[in-house]
Specification:
With about 110 residues, the protein is of the alpha+beta class. The protein has two domains: about 1-60, no CATH class; about 65-105, no CATH class. It contains three helices and three strands, in the order βββααα.
Length: about 110
């Protein structure tokens, strides 16, 4: 059977009128053009394809995470509640041996919070 066309096989038929009545078209959960006929069968029709495409509403774009904005917000909130270090050992700003340092993202460039 290899290489032979089988009459009536899917993908080998020319478009033709089925003589069926459309009961309804598919919903957004179905592939566009999905058609349900009154005899209980289903298939694809150009009528339902056109109808479904006309009512299609694309989903909203997915928001991307803005790392720079997050880093800025993190820094603002952190410094609002913590004293800024001078990194001068003689400043008496509370930073020195055994003291908690600010997060690395606030002390080093290129490090995300």
């Amino acid at each position: 059977m290899r290489g032979r066309r089988v009459p009536g096989a899917p993908g080998h038929e020319s478009p033709h009128c089925l003589g069926k009545q459309i009961a309804s078209c598919g919903t957004a959960n179905h592939q566009t053009g999905t058609t349900f006929f009154t005899d209980g069968t289903s298939g694809w029709t150009q009528t339902c394809q056109n109808q479904m495409l006309a009512t299609y509403v694309p989903p909203p774009p997915v928001q991307t995470f803005d790392q720079e904005a997050y880093n800025q917000q993190f820094a603002e909130e952190y410094w609002r509640t913590h004293p800024r270090p001078t990194f001068d050992p003689d400043s008496a700003d509370g930073y020195g041996p055994d003291q908690e340092l600010p997060p690395a993202c606030l002390r080093l460039e290129g490090v995300d919070c």
